[in-house]
Design a protein that fits this description.
Shape: elongated
Distance between the termini: 79 Å
Largest sheet: none
Oligomer: single chain
């Protein structure tokens, strides 16, 4: 609980020769794929999901846990985030992609074949309805409002305190 007298600093140094760049997939042209992974979020739709350990868990100076607990917590956080994400994507990615495809295909079909023809029909009919509505307003509603206004304009109220 913050009683350590010396701070443990853990660093891992690896040479490029000792680090395996092999992903388990053999490509025909390894130079084409080495060092560059495809950008799976080119439009930055999920840029807000970059969550690191320090973004979630932070200890103020006044409350520190043991250094080994902090290091283990950090390691477990990263490993569990990685493993659980991979596990969930194995079982959910394909069914959810299928459901999203059905949903967006349905919405596209409805938009193309029902909503837009309805909107275009309304826009085609609108000038005629506008002309009829202006006539009804001029013939019925305007004289009615004028008459009601004249009736109430002759009313006067006087308040007296008794």
């Amino acid at each position: 609980m913050g009683l350590e007298t010396e701070k443990a600093d853990v660093q891992l140094f690896m040479d490029d020769d000792s680090y395996s760049h092999h992903t388990g997939i053999d490509y025909d042209d390894p130079e084409k794929f080495a060092g560059s992974s495809p950008d799976r979020d080119p439009n930055r739709l999920n840029s807000h999901l970059k969550v690191d350990f320090e973004d979630v868990i932070a200890e103020p100076v006044s409350a520190h846990s043991f250094d080994k607990v902090w290091i283990c917590s950090h390691a477990l956080f990263e490993v569990s985030k990685y493993v659980i994400y991979k596990f969930l994507t194995v079982f959910l990615a394909i069914p959810l992609a299928f459901a999203a495809g059905i949903l967006f295909a349905t919405l596209s079909c409805l938009h193309i074949w029902i909503i837009m023809p309805f909107v275009k029909t309304c826009l085609m009919v609108q000038p005629s309805v506008q002309t009829i509505w202006k006539s009804v307003t001029d013939v019925v509603i305007a004289p009615l409002c004028t008459s009601i206004g004249r009736i109430f304009s002759s009313v006067s109220l006087q308040l007296s305190h008794d």
